[in-house]
Known about the structure:
This protein is of the alpha/beta class. It has two domains: about 5-210, Phosphoenolpyruvate-binding domains (TIM Barrel, Alpha-Beta Barrel), CATH 3.20.20; about 215-260. It is about 40% helix and about 15% strand. The protein contains ten helices and eight strands. It has helices spanning about 5-10, 25-35, 50-55, 70-85, 95-105, 135-150, 160-170, 190-195, 210-235, 250-260; strands spanning about 20, 40-45, 60-65, 90, 110-115, 155, 175-180, 185-190. The protein has an eight-stranded parallel beta barrel, surrounded by five helices. The longest helix is centred in the last third of the chain and has 25 residues, at about 210-235. The protein is elongated. Homodecamer; pentamer of dimers.
Amino acid sequence: MRGMTVKDLLEAKGKRQMAYVQVAREEEAVAAAEAGMDMIGTAFIPERAHFAKAAAGAHFQFGLPWGKHADVTEALRDAMAAMQAGAQSVYCGMSPTLVEGLAREGIPVICHVGLVPPKATWTGGYRAVGKTLDQAQMIWQQVRDFEAAGAFAVEMEVVPANLACEITKRTSLLTVSLGSGGDCDVQYLFSADLLGENRGHIPRHAKVYRNFAAERDRMQDDRIAAYREYIADVTSGAFPEAGQITQMEDSALADFLSKI
């Protein structure tokens, strides 16, 4: 079963909410596809380049890592490699100028506004962006610039929900909400938050559905216990047992001994 194409996603805009998850492990990508996730994403790095083909049935997006690409040519080379690896779209957190270069070559691009972590110093750190008139106008202009550059979607991170709602009504871009309310076209979470992998601070916009951190703690305790039991068995001579070894026939052993 093929995943949703860009055309499918844009046709679904305003008709139904879609679910999108960021994964870090192949088994997460496979599980998300099996669950019926509309969109799955991960960073385009060598150890994850096979994820798209492992997660058939979902729209798969590879993200261009921030700071890796110094210009359009470098980004385009990686974006094309990502598409060849099975992606149906590419995330790019860089400028409209760079996005335009990718879009011009037919790369479907998801851009980013609001709280953009590598650029957070410009907007006051890790906090909501868009609460003031100036910030709201800035976000709206950025959306319009990305739309003109040829992006097909925009991630809106920690933008006030009512502002994100109004922008969603007024843009042709598919809007992706990471903490920006339920009126965007797509809802987005990180698997690490959704599965309860993280300890300590949980982002306010995240919802935790499982407690994998506690399960990993339990498994680690079991690993330590198993290693200790093994060490004790080796020390006492309880390992190996008869069932874990093989023996020569007595006559064959006797022949061997006679030769040495």
